[in-house]
Each structure stands twice: as C-alpha cells, then as structure tokens.
Amino acid sequence: MAKAQLVLLVGTRKGAWIYRADSARKTWRVSAPIQFGNVIQHLVLDPRDNRTLLMAASAGHLGPTVLRSSDGGKSWKEAKTPPRFEKSADGKGESIKNVFWLTPGHASRPKQWYAGCSPHSLWRSDDAGETWTGVDGFNKHPRRDEWRGDPNNNPPDNPNTHSIIVDPRDPRHLYMGFSTAGIFESTDEGASWKALCKGVAADFLPVKDPEFGHDPHCIRICPSNPDRLYHQNHCGIYRIDRPADTWTRIGDNMPKAIGDIGFPMVVHPRSADVAWVFPMDGSSVWPRTSVGGKPAAYVTRDAGKSWKRLDKGFPKVNAWWTVKRQAMCHDGGDPLGLCVGTTQGEIWRSRDEGKSWALLARDLPHIYSVECGTLA
Amino acid sequence: MRDSRVKVGIPSPLHSYTGGRALVDADGATLGDVIDDLERRHPGIKFRMIDEQDHVRPHILIWVGTKSVRDLKAKIDGEVKIVAALSGG
Fold first, then answer.
1. Is residue B86 scored above 90 in pLDDT?
2. Closest Cα partner for A221 from A201, A236, A241?
3. CA of B43: which chain A residue's CA is closest?
C-alpha cells in the first residue's frame, strides 16, 4: 500500500503544478505542468478520499470549466456539465465568467462539492464534480441583484464568490463571501441566505453600518471550534464567535504602520486562538504589495488581541509581493507548516508555524492559489 | 433547409476536444447548427467558445468564408474557421 504523501497544489495563470514532499517533508519533487497555459484559479484535493482533485480552469480565450482527476492528478477529465446559467429567452441572461473557488462538501456527503463563480453565484455537485447545478436559494434569490450591486462597479478581477464554508458539525450550515457584497450564511443547505456583516467596516460606501455591500477577501472557520470564524476584509481583520452575529475588528491590534489590509487568512487546525495573515499595503491607490517592500506574515496566538511579525528568511527590502486570497495555506502537520505563493511566481514555506521561511520554488507564473493535502 | 457538410478549422486551444485535429467536419445550414454538430461530435467544445446565452465568447472569432460572424443564425456559405483571437499574454 502506498504511503500517504503531502502535496502542495499550485494554481497559476498559466497552468497548475503539484509538488510532492518526501516523508520528512523536507524536499519536494515537482510535476510537469498540468493543463499548461490554462488559467487555474483553484486546485483542491478532496480530504474525504485523498485521491480526487478538482480544478477551476479557464483559458485566455475559452470559457470556464471544472476539471477532475480521480487518480491523484495523473489524468484529468472535464466536467460533463460545468457551472452554467440557464439560457434566457431573450439571450440577455447571465453567463459564467470564471469558476473561482472550490470547496469539498461535508464528510457525510462524500461526493458533494461547492463552487463559487463570477458573476456571484453558488453551484453544487453531488457526483464529485461531474455535473453542477445552481444553488437556486442564492442564485435566484429575489434580493441577489440588490446584494451584489452594480455589475459595472466591481473589482478588477471580477466579483467573485469565495470562502464557501461548510460547518463540519452540520452539512446544512454554510457560509460564503462575496467581494463587494458581504458575508452570507445559510442554515438550510443553501435554500435561504442572510447577511452576516454586522461590525464590519465598509468605508467605501456612503452608508454607515450597511446590511450588506462589504468586501470580505477571505473567511476561515476554525476546525477545532467551528463557532469561531476569522476573516480578512478589504477594511480590516475580524473575528466572530457564534452565536454572536457581530464581528470584532481584531486588526485594530496590528501595528499601525502595517495596517490590517490583505487577502489571505489561515487558521490553525488545532487551536482556534491561532491565525495568520499576510498584510498588503492598503494605502492611497491600494498597491496591495508587501508594506514597504518588506514581506511579512503576522500571527495571533490569542484570538486577535495581539499580533507578532514573522519575516525571518524573507527578503529584507525591495520585495513588492502580492499574495492573493487563495495563496496561503497550512499543511496540517505538527508542527504546522505554512506556504505562501506570490504573484511573482515564488513559493515560500515555513516548517515551524511561520517562525522562519525558505524559498521552495521560483519562476512559476503568477500564482492564484496554493493548497496542501495528503495524497493517499 | 438541407444541412451541408463543412470543414471547420479548430484553433490549438480547442484541440484537446478534437483529438488534436486542426480541421474537422461538421454539418449544418447555419453557424449555430454547425456549432451544435461540433458539440455532438466533440462534447464540451461548445461551452468553451459560446456562452450559455449563445453569445460567441469575447476572445473567439469565427470566420465563415471571408466574413467574421458572431450571429449563430448566419447561413453557412463557406469554410468555417474558429480563431482564438490575439488578446495578449
């Protein structure tokens, strides 16, 4: 029987790569490019069987789709019915621009997956990604157009549906994030939704404390305490402890010179008090690069009351990294390893929870996502 | 109208659907018919170049004879050539 192997799955603007670790997790062997030339927004290993991989793909010229592998990435097959809206009678209906986010479903629904797309929409597969159907409770919700706002006034890389979270205790309990729409929750497996944005700043809106319209960048649930979620927003870093319905801005405890703007958020799988962010410069015209050209992760070990800078091993100056919302992950190990992918095509890895970092790979294309998993 | 068989030029980004072939056969009296026949022969190819509202995707060009056509109702009166438009890096 083959031994389980730690893999790092990398989605880039020009294809995907799989890095396989040795048993000591010290050296890595890289695959040939997978779906070379395609835009790979997200590549995820199913933790329920440790064999199935799903990939959100498009190409510069071609429409979006989902690709599947049932043999750990050796071969790939396109979904028979990728996410797509119904054809409207007048031809003015919506069309999927990209498949952005993939989330394996609850452990009790072994073939279920969710996909978040642009324009804002949620899709579900009950056959391990072969066919996809829209979650009508959101996609046809009478307030969806109101929630998502003016489609002509959306982020440069599309208004994406992301951070689809399934409560590990309850397959009916879902959260998801929408850029420029907010954080939404369902307790009936997607049949109905309500905004969960109280306490979150939206300083780009003219209304104080709006019900929705916020800009979450990445939301994470704590596996060790699923009542706790963290999220990195366009306007700060937040924590919520359910059943409370109001987020607390824990980013106010970050150093003022760094601020609390960024894209990714990672939570410790075994300690709900521990989380990491990778701050970006959110000043003036929002360069969204490492503050001052000095890359650093920040960790909290007390649920956001305090933060510690983690930059040992990173370049000290003139490193203007951008790390996107899916481009930071942990490896599940003990001690926990972390990986960061940059839009400059570098992967940096820490084997000690961020205390020190080393370059794992360079010269890759623009990185959209990094995900770790254990391949059976 | 009786369908006619036409040759369809396929750009390299779509060769994974045609078994690597750059020129394939399809039947149809209109461009939409030809595209639907391509889909029957090469499942999955249509959605990569035509969206769910039957619009040709922004970076795809389709030539019928010497005319660039985006209307799927257009009559077929020449060879069809699908082009992945030059749209940068």
1. no
2. A241
3. A80
d(CA A240, CA A124): 26
Q: Per the CB < 8 Å rule, is A93 touching B14?
A: no
Q: Per-residue pLDDT for B80 more than 80?
A: yes
Tell me the pTM. 0.94
Structure tokens at A123: 């899709």
Residues A108 and A211: their CA atoms lie apart, in Å, by 33
Fold topology of B5-84:
Ubiquitin-like (UB roll) (3.10.20)
Closest Cα of chain B to A195: distance in Å? 29
Structure tokens at A20: 């396989």
How does pLDDT run across A15-54, given as a tens digit for each residue?
Answer: 999 999 998 888 999 999 999 999 999 999 999 999 999 9
What residue spans define the domains of chain B?
5-84
Residues of chain B neighbouring A89 (CB-CB closer than 8 A): none
* Domain of residue A290, residue span: 28-84+95-321
Token representation of residue A103: 């989330």
Averaged pLDDT for residues B57-78: 93
ipTM for the complex?
Answer: 0.84
Q: How many domains does chain A have?
A: 1
Which residue in chain A is spatially nearest to B49 when comparing CA positions? A62
CB contact under 8 A, B13 and A91: no
* Position A160 in a domain: yes
Task: Give the gap in angstroms from C-alpha A85 to the nearest C-alpha of chain B.
Answer: 6
Angstroms from B46 CA to nearest CA on chain A: 9
